Amino acid sequence: VRWYRLAADQGHKSAQFNLGGCYSKGTGVVQDKAEALRWLRLAANQGHANAEYNLGASYHNGAGVP
To answer: In which element (H, E) is residue 3 found?
Structure first.
Protein backbone atom coordinates (compact mmCIF):
# COMPACT_ATOMS: atom_id res chain seq x y z
CA VAL A 1 0.00 0.00 0.00
CA ARG A 2 2.89 2.35 0.74
CA TRP A 3 4.12 2.35 -2.86
CA TYR A 4 0.61 2.73 -4.24
CA ARG A 5 0.15 5.76 -1.98
CA LEU A 6 3.42 7.35 -3.10
CA ALA A 7 2.58 6.89 -6.79
CA ALA A 8 -1.08 7.84 -6.33
CA ASP A 9 -0.11 11.08 -4.59
CA GLN A 10 1.97 11.90 -7.68
CA GLY A 11 -1.03 11.39 -9.95
CA HIS A 12 -0.36 7.87 -11.29
CA LYS A 13 -3.81 6.71 -12.38
CA SER A 14 -3.16 2.96 -12.01
CA ALA A 15 -1.82 3.48 -8.50
CA GLN A 16 -4.90 5.55 -7.66
CA PHE A 17 -7.11 2.76 -8.98
CA ASN A 18 -5.21 0.11 -7.00
CA LEU A 19 -5.23 2.20 -3.83
CA GLY A 20 -8.98 2.62 -4.24
CA GLY A 21 -9.25 -1.15 -4.40
CA CYS A 22 -7.21 -1.50 -1.21
CA TYR A 23 -9.55 0.86 0.64
CA SER A 24 -12.61 -0.83 -0.82
CA LYS A 25 -11.54 -4.28 0.36
CA GLY A 26 -9.57 -3.28 3.45
CA THR A 27 -6.33 -4.71 2.08
CA GLY A 28 -3.42 -3.24 4.02
CA VAL A 29 -5.58 -0.38 5.31
CA VAL A 30 -8.75 0.01 7.31
CA GLN A 31 -11.72 -0.50 4.98
CA ASP A 32 -13.18 2.87 3.98
CA LYS A 33 -15.63 2.96 1.07
CA ALA A 34 -15.65 6.77 0.90
CA GLU A 35 -11.85 6.89 0.66
CA ALA A 36 -11.98 4.15 -1.98
CA LEU A 37 -14.39 6.26 -3.99
CA ARG A 38 -12.12 9.30 -3.70
CA TRP A 39 -9.19 7.39 -5.24
CA LEU A 40 -11.37 5.77 -7.91
CA ARG A 41 -12.72 9.19 -8.87
CA LEU A 42 -9.20 10.57 -9.29
CA ALA A 43 -8.21 7.65 -11.51
CA ALA A 44 -11.47 7.82 -13.49
CA ASN A 45 -10.97 11.53 -14.12
CA GLN A 46 -7.71 10.61 -15.84
CA GLY A 47 -9.44 8.08 -18.10
CA HIS A 48 -8.67 4.83 -16.27
CA ALA A 49 -11.38 2.58 -17.76
CA ASN A 50 -11.64 0.13 -14.86
CA ALA A 51 -11.85 3.01 -12.40
CA GLU A 52 -14.65 4.53 -14.46
CA TYR A 53 -16.52 1.22 -14.38
CA ASN A 54 -15.99 0.67 -10.64
CA LEU A 55 -16.97 4.25 -9.88
CA GLY A 56 -20.20 3.83 -11.83
CA ALA A 57 -20.90 0.52 -10.09
CA SER A 58 -20.29 2.14 -6.71
CA TYR A 59 -22.82 4.87 -7.47
CA HIS A 60 -25.29 2.31 -8.79
CA ASN A 61 -24.95 0.19 -5.64
CA GLY A 62 -24.68 3.12 -3.24
CA ALA A 63 -21.28 1.99 -1.92
CA GLY A 64 -19.38 4.84 -0.28
CA VAL A 65 -21.65 7.56 -1.61
CA PRO A 66 -23.73 9.92 0.51
So the answer is: helix 2-9
